[in-house]
Amino acid sequence: MDFKENEPIYLQIAGAVSENILTGKWPAGEKITSIRDLAIELEVNPNTVNRAYELLQNQEVIINKRGMGLFVALDGAVKIKAIRKERFMQQELPEFFRNIHLLDIELNDLQHLYQQFKKDNRKPKTDTTNENE
């Protein structure tokens, strides 16, 4: 993982863990990488990983099962999306609107590009129903 200079490392780690949850790499209810193992993998101090995990626990994205380790909360992905959506609406969207206004770009000009992006980045469907039912 390449860390950025302009954001605390623990926040970047929390973001990477959240990404793993959103992409399904770490599914709901699954045990996640231990603090020590993730610190070794990322070559950071375990206290930094602990701080990231504490943030995610406070947000109820991950839960601590005493004596068993840390697990993705059953609604962890939903909570991450809500947190990220709020941050996007408050911080990033105003800057986006400012830029499209300054560049005289209309939202309908972006619609085709966004639809193409969604098509190119569509999540594969997981069908859990039995076809014989």
Low-confidence stretches: 126-133
Mean pLDDT: 91
What structural class results from the helix and strand content?
mainly alpha
Q: For the report, how would you describe the main beta sheet?
A: 2 strands, antiparallel
Q: What is the overall shape?
A: elongated
Beta strand %:
5-15%
Short structural description:
The relative contact order is 0.10. β1 and β2 (69-72) form a beta hairpin.
Tell me what you see in this structure.
- It is a single chain.
- The chain is mainly α and 133 residues long.
- It has two domains: 9-72, Orthogonal Bundle (Arc Repressor Mutant, subunit A), CATH 1.10.10; 77-120.
- The protein has five helices and two strands.
- The protein has helices at 9-22, 35-42, 46-58, 76-102, 107-120, and strands at residues 62-65, 69-72.
- It has a two-stranded antiparallel ribbon.
- Helix 1 crosses helix 3 and helix 2 (35-42) packs across helix 3.
- The model is unreliable at 126-133 (pLDDT under 50).
Main features:
5 helices; 2 strands; 2 domains; mainly alpha; disordered C terminus; two-stranded antiparallel sheet; 133 residues; 6% strand; Arc Repressor Mutant, subunit A
SSE topology sketch:
Layout: H1 9-22, H2 35-42, H3 46-58, E1 62-65, E2 69-72, H4 76-102, H5 107-120
Antiparallel strand pairs: 1-2
